[in-house]
Structure to design on (156 residues):
């Protein structure tokens, strides 16, 4: 933490290119890496964040879900669950690999990302990272919201 976050451009669930540095210049960015669309825990995660989306927006935070699913799969997933924030396709898992959030190659989930969260401030500095040992647990949503609220206070 405290280091510059790698910039990259990914396609969203609606086919729009999203460059992270353009997003964090506007405010805090929360990246939520999830294993796969339609997974049970992934569904709980995106539905909880959809329910909390307004609170994150009030703290000037943009949420992006990230997986290595295709944009087509992410578009269907977002539409079916009525997800209120963009989903980004990290096809080829370039960013996930760079961040070290891929399941080990010898695991049952090889090729999938670990459920993990990153908060980047408006200067592109990583301020929070949580990479669990496995993807069976949801994030601490209240902790994520507390961090982005703290960053909003610092920017005020």
């Amino acid at each position: 933490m405290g280091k510059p976050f790698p910039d990259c451009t990914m396609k969203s669930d609606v086919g729009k290119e999203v460059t992270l540095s353009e997003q964090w210049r506007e405010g805090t960015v929360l990246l939520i890496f999830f294993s796969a669309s339609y997974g049970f825990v992934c569904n709980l995660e995106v539905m909880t964040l959809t329910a909390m989306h307004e609170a994150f927006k009030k703290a000037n935070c943009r949420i992006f879900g990230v997986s290595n699913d295709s944009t087509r799969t992410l578009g269907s997933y977002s539409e079916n669950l009525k997800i209120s924030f963009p989903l980004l396709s990290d096809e080829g898992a370039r960013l996930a690999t760079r961040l070290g959030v891929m399941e080990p190659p010898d695991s049952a989930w090889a090729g999938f990302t670990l459920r993990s969260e990153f908060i980047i401030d408006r200067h592109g500095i990583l301020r929070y990272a949580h990479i669990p040992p496995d993807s069976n647990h949801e994030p601490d949503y209240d902790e994520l919201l507390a961090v982005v609220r703290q960053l909003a206070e610092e920017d005020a």
Helices lie at 20-24, 40-58, 71-81, 94-99, 141-155. The radius of gyration is 14 Å. The chain has a mean pLDDT of 92.
